[in-house]
Every structure is written in structure tokens, then in C-alpha cells.
Design goal:
471 residues; mainly alpha; Farnesyl Diphosphate Synthase; 19 helices; globular; disordered N terminus
């Protein structure tokens, strides 16, 4: 698979390499989790003999070819669309200024966030959130006193925007024994709101831990009963991954389809969401075209290929010769390498030298030794977290998975706490850090091959996010 990544990139002005007509390389990425066999050979000669056992995952060629990316066209550019979106944004600003009911304000902000539109209205949202927070100090919070849906929604949005809100706001929904009241289960919308709010917790907040367990249990039962298809789909989506952990742009794409089916759908919000998504997608496509032309993209694909060679495909003797060739940084060292390694080495050698030449010419820095040093890594299969826990404790695979899920949850609590504390870092920094965690969660949501296999969920997500506009 990784070998195909290089083949899909544009050829630079460096030495051309003829790829053998025979498919000499079939790679399994390090995500496979299969231990690499060590094969000792009796001579220093390396052969391309078909008798050498090499593993293969039978990856298909990448669909993201350079020519395909460069051919992408999007109609959602130009002044006509700019005028349309500005008109719709003006109408939404009027909504934000006119709505006065606290719950309606919260719901409007929540919808704008989930539709991917809130970045257009940051000042208006900030003003409303601050007013809602100040209600706590002036006794104006009675509107949500017995409403679990409203209480949880306000809690989630305030914490999300950096306000300190106590978990004790949920004590009103507990019985005399300290358990959440059974009657809350009758309100599925409230249960879902409580569930989503619980993921804004920090370490040591037992009330929110109980809220998560309580709501998740009853939401799971609701899905099994399947009383309402649309609501069941939303609940299932939340139980799979909570809103706080999801990639925002992918979530916006999903929620636009959900929102258009709602009885209370506002056509202005829906139209703005679709238009904004398509305009942003057009911008992303142009960014993608630019990125795919850069040397860095080629180097990233090359690193993936070499990582696969070290992890799976190469024999021990081949890897020692390749490492030696990189350390010497001498094209003459290629003579001892098998053909597939000659391709990798020459591509690495030419790419690094070209980057170093451009840097020296444009900025006056000689960086070959630093770039070369970064590639001098002796690699091997990387143990996976689940495998490590199973080996260390003797746990079953399912128990190990549950343990890793708990670690992920605890890590999110730490990030939530850092965001709530006084810190020298601004909100943009925290959002970037959280988005990295969201990206990892999304990439490996359906297993360890989220990166290595291009024809499953990852492909569909990329298509919906970067390629296909909303109609």
C-alpha cells in the first residue's frame, strides 16, 4: 500500500528510477500486529529469490493519486456564493440577537456548533454564554431547576467554553440514596443530554461518572427497543463515540443529514450549513492540491514505505544492509541491496538531497546531516497497547480493550481539567491538542487498520469531507 503512495506522487527533478515490471514489493504496515520473522542467511549476498517468505496484506493501490487530486473541481467558489452566505449569516445573527429564552439560546448555540457554523458567530455566542453563566449568581436559573435536559445542556456548553461549573448541579436529579432518579429514564432526550455532558468531566468527579454509567445503560436499552428510528440513530451515534470526542468537521457532515430530517428544522440554518460546508470543502480541495505538490508529502509517503519494510517485509540481513547504506549515504552502497530496496534508498537519497539543496539555496542552512540522521532508525514491530496489557497481565482481549478504553477516558479528563485551569496557553492551543486526540480516535475507531487500509470507513469519511459536496 505504502509503495503505491510514492507511485501516485509527481516525479521531481531528481534521478529517475525504473520500477521493475514484476511486483517486487507487497507491504504490511506496522499496524498489523504480526511479529516479524527473523531469517538468517548464510552469505552476505542478498537475493530476490521468490523462496524468501514475505508477508502481504494484499493492499490495493491508493485511490488518492496525484492526478486525481489535481483534477478536483468545485463550483462553490466566487462572489455569488460569498453573497449568498453573507446574507444567510446576517439572518442568523438576527436570530441570535432576538432569541431571549435561555433554553432556546442554548439550543441554538448547540445546533450552530453541531452544524459547523459557530465559528462565524463567536462574539454573539460568547455574549450569550457569559450572560447564562452570570444567571447562577443572580438567582435567574430557576428555568432549568427540574429539567435534566436543560441542566445538562447548559453544563456542557459552559464547560466547553471554559467556565467553571460544579458537578453538583446534578444533585437535584438524585434520590435520597444518592442514585439518579428512575423517572429520568422516561425522558430519552434528557438522558442523551446527561450522557453527553458527562464527558466534560475531570478527575475525581464521581457524580459525573455515575451520570455516564446511568445514562449509557438506559440509552443502550432504548436503542434495543428501537421505538423511534431517528432518535435511535442519534443515540447509537452518541454511544459509539460521544460528541466531545468527535472530529468537528466530520460530525458537522453527519449532523447536517440528521438535522434536515428534524420536524423543527430551521431552513435558514440548514441552507447556511450546506453552503458553508461546500465552500469550506472547496478551500480544503485547493489546500490539498497545494500540499500534494510539496516535497514534504512525498517524504511522508516514503517514510511510510520504509517503515513497512522494516516492520514486515524485509529480512534481517536486508535491513542491516539498508541501515548501513543510509548511514554511509552513498549511492554505491545500493549495489548490495535487493531491487525493491534500491528503489526505496534512491528515492530517499534523492528526496533528502533535493530538500537540502533547496534549503541551502533559499535559506543558507546545510541540513543534510539532520535529515539523514532522522532516517537512521532500526525498526521493528511496535507492540500494541492491547497486546502489551494482555502479555503483562494475562487478561483476555476484551478485558484489555476495556482497560484501554478506561485509559482513554482518564486522559480526556486530564485534558478537560487543563482547559478549565488558569493556564498560559490560549483556547486555540487547547483546541488543537484536543483535535489531535479526536483525529487519533477517528482514525483507529474501527480497528488498527484505519491508516493502512484505504477502502473502508476512512475512504468514505475522506470522500464526504473533502470530495463530495452536499446537495
Amino acid at each position: 500500500m505504502a509503495h503505491n503512495l510514492i507511485a501516485s506522487l509527481p516525479i521531481c527533478n531528481s534521478t529517475r528510477v525504473l520500477v521493475p515490471s514484476k511486483d517486487l514489493i507487497s507491504l504490511v504496515p506496522s499496524r498489523s500486529g504480526i511479529p516479524r520473522p527473523i531469517q538468517c542467511m548464510l552469505t552476505s549476498e542478498i537475493s530476490d529469490s521468490p523462496n524468501i517468505f514475505r508477508r502481504s496484506a494484499n493492499y490495493q493501490p491508493s485511490i488518492w493519486h496525484y492526478d486525481y487530486i489535481q483534477s478536483l473541481k468545485n463550483e462553490y467558489v466566487g462572489e455569488s456564493y460569498t453573497r449568498q452566505i453573507n446574507k444567510l449569516m446576517g439572518q442568523v445573527r438576527m436570530m441570535l440577537h432576538k432569541v431571549m429564552d435561555p433554553l432556546e439560546q442554548l439550543e441554538l448555540i448547540d445546533i450552530l456548533q453541531r452544524l459547523g457554523l459557530s465559528y462565524h458567530f463567536e462574539e454573539e455566542i460568547k455574549r450569550i454564554i457569559e450572560c447564562l453563566y452570570n444567571m447562577n449568581d443572580h438567582g435567574g436559573d430557576t428555568w432549568k431547576m427540574d429539567n435534566s435536559y436543560a441542566t445538562a445542556l447548559k453544563f456542557r456548553l459552559l464547560r466547553q467554553h471554559g467556565y467553571a461549573v460544579s458537578q453538583e448541579v446534578f444533585n437535584n436529579f438524585k434520590d435520597e440514596r444518592g442514585n439518579f432518579k428512575a423517572c429520568l429514564c422516561e425522558d430519552t432526550k434528557g438522558m442523551l443530554s446527561l450522557y453527553e455532558a458527562s464527558f466534560l468531566s475531570i478527575e475525581g468527579e464521581n457524580i459525573l461518572d455515575k451520570a455516564r454509567d446511568f445514562s449509557a445503560k438506559h440509552l443502550d436499552e432504548y436503542v434495543k427497543q428501537n421505538k423511534d428510528k431517528n432518535l435511535s440513530a442519534i443515540v447509537s451515534h452518541a454511544l459509539e463515540i460521544p460528541l466531545h470526542w468527535r472530529m468537528l468537521r466530520l460530525e458537522a457532515r453527519w449532523f447536517i443529514d440528521i438535522y434536515r430530517r428534524r420536524e423543527d428544522m430551521n431552513p435558514i440554518l440548514l441552507e447556511l450549513a450546506k453552503l458553508d460546508f461546500n465552500i469550506v470543502q472547496a478551500t480544503h480541495q485547493e489546500d490539498l492540491k497545494q500540499v500534494s505538490r510539496r516535497m514534504l508529502t512525498k517524504v511522508n509517503a516514503l517514510i511510510t514505505t520504509i517503515d513497512d519494510v522494516y516492520d514486515v517485509y524485509g529480512t534481517l540481513d536486508e535491513l542491516e544492509l539498508f541501515t548501513n547504506a543510509v548511514e554511509r549515504w552513498d549511492v554505491n552502497a545500493m549495489d548490495q541491496l535487493p531491487d525493491y530496496m534500491k528503489i526505496c534508498f534512491l528515492a530517499l537519497h534523492n528526496s533528502v538531497n533535493e530538500m537540502a539543496f533547496d534549503t541551502l539555496k533559499e535559506q543558507g542552512f546545510h541540513i543534510v546531516r539532520y535529515l539523514k540522521k532522522s532516517d537512521e532508525l532500526e525498526r521493528g514491530d511496535i507492540p500494541k497497547s492491547i497486546q502489551c496489557y494482555m502479555n503483562e497481565t494475562g487478561a483476555t482481549k476484551e478485558d484489555a480493550r476495556e482497560y484501554i478504553r478506561c485509559l482513554i477516558s482518564e486522559t480526556w479528563k486530564k485534558m478537560n481539567e487543563e482547559q478549565a485551569l488558569s493556564s498560559p496557553f490560549n483556547q486555540t492551543f487547547f483546541e488543537t491538542a484536543m483535535n489531535l486526540a479526536r483525529m487519533a480516535q477517528c482514525m483507529y475507531q474501527h480497528g488498527e487498520y484505519g491508516h493502512g487500509i484505504g477502502d473502508r470507513e476512512t475512504k468514505d469519511r475522506i470522500l464526504s469531507l473533502l470530495i463530495k459536496p452536499i446537495h
